[in-house]
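Q: Got a minute? One more chain.
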Amino acid sequence: MRGLGIFSSGPSRPKPECDCALRGAGNIFLSCFLPRPLTLTLCPRARGEGIHNVPAMTAQQRLRSPLRFAWVLAIALAALTPLAAFGHGATPQKVIEAIEIDAPPARVWAVVGDFQDASWLPGVVRSEGEGGNTPETGKRRLFLANGAAIDERLVQYDESAMSLRYLMEHVDIKVLPVGNLSATLKVSPAGAGSLVEWKSRFYRAFPGGNPPEQFTDEIAVQAVTDLFRSGLANLKARVERR
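A: Always. Here it is, folded:
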């Protein structure tokens, strides 16, 4: 761009393999990523006071300068240190629990297959819902003994396969420290009885890096594990009493 007096190809100087020392202040890393060597020439008006042309250096010359290399390395490490300290964000977690029940699958499904009735879950004092067992229409609110409530929505329902999947749309993170939980309940034959599998995928309640100790991945996984184990144990006791 000859008219602007900004970039020129530097015809009077042999082209180095990688002209990282572009003329002008603050252009340390740019030329490493350019397809061809360039030199930066500031026009008189843009140069201003206190800014001087810096002689171009070849890649070999730059590498021979220990002080320059150490300075660039220090800047790179300083830039990466905050990222390492910040940590990674929330990653998906999963919990899978199963239990065998001494009852035929149809009897077990009659309990867990009614999405509007979650009375088999420990800690649930009552539940309200609408939409029955119709996916995307079926919704329920679980009222817990501690006064909290959980809102869930049915997204898949297969009567013949005795399987359903739901999303937890709202929960107090003090009750269950998770977010975006989806879970599947499935009943299968197991010998003369049944096998109930409950699996889920979710994130911890704190989405950013370095979560508080009460919102770590480990705490979230343990909370869901405890919920599933107690729920399945209660389901087994309820069905086998019948």
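A: DSSP finds five helices and nine strands in the chain.
Q: Perfect, thanks.
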